[in-house]
Amino acid sequence: MMIKVGVLGAGHLGKIHLKLLKQSEKYELVGFYDPIKENAAKVSDEFGYKAFDTIEALIDAVDVVDIVTPTLSHFDCAKQAISKGKHIFIEKPITKTVAEAETLIELSNKHNVKGQVGHVERFNPAFTAVKDAIQQPMFIETHRLAEFNPRGTDVPVVLDLMIHDIDVILSVVKSKVKNIHSSGVSVISETPDIANARIEFENGCVANLTASRISLKNMRKSRFFQKDAYIAVDFFEKATEVVKMKDAPEQPGDFDMVLQNAEGIKKQIYFENPTVEANNAILDELETFADAINNNTTPIVSLEQGTDALRVAQQIIDNF
């Protein structure tokens, strides 16, 4: 069943969402609303999408509201949509504050609607190729470095960049957060441009996250260490590396890599190369949300999970 969808916000990312929803076989794109009239007219003329005059008119015309507005307006837009019984797809971070996010969860339960948060890295093909192999990681290291772009500097780098890695980590570590230590430095913006955080979980897992938006090159890498395995995910290059260990055979082959520890136990190292299948991660996240609505299942990145990521991000910022 085609789901009627409308987009709030026709900026850089909003235009991408509009294009993909127009292509999708799961959605019927009804139109969009952008408060900047000149921008709305330009997008409408250039691409032929219907521009609505008010938010209310757009919400009334659709089943799903796709919120691709600045973070500060997420809460008001989502609240209006949910209160009218509409499902919401909302870009990350879910809202500006944890209290706002918790209110949206309550409202969505009350009005029986579904919500998904746009944590797009969960749909990155490099991550989906290895996520089932990540089992009880005990040390995680992430680096997310970006070249300077004034577009994202209205929020701290933690909410802009690091939150991607926070969400990915929370999705694979099945334990509660115990402690958070962090530091941040403002170099060019009013809020920190570089941040480092150490998250300790109750099960002993430790995650060390670094994010910067004033780097000379782009880098988005995560490394997961667990018993008998090391898994690396390059979200930028969409590549993976999986190194595993198993008990060494009695008679190793000439090309087998065998390590021996101090106790004399021999382990064989072997490499797995999972297939990374090219995809459009934004289209995937939007279409899996349509599936969740049609099949009445929980969205892959629920409002609760988006709130958990925001809560940890906020704790990191509070600790600066």
TrEMBL record:
Gfo/Idh/MocA-like oxidoreductase N-terminal domain ranges (all copies): 3-119
MF terms (GO), sorted A to Z: nucleotide binding
InterPro entries to which the protein is assigned, alphabetical: Gfo/Idh/MocA-like_OxRdtase_N, Gfo/Idh/MocA_Oxidoreductases, GFO_IDH_MocA-like_dom, NAD(P)-bd_dom_sf
Gene3D superfamilies for the chain: Dihydrodipicolinate Reductase, domain 2 (3.30.360.10), NAD(P)-binding Rossmann-like Domain (3.40.50.720)
Membrane-crossing residue ranges in chain numbering: none
Domain GFO/IDH/MocA-like oxidoreductase: from-to ranges: 157-217
Entry protein name: Predicted dehydrogenase
Species name: Lutibacter agarilyticus
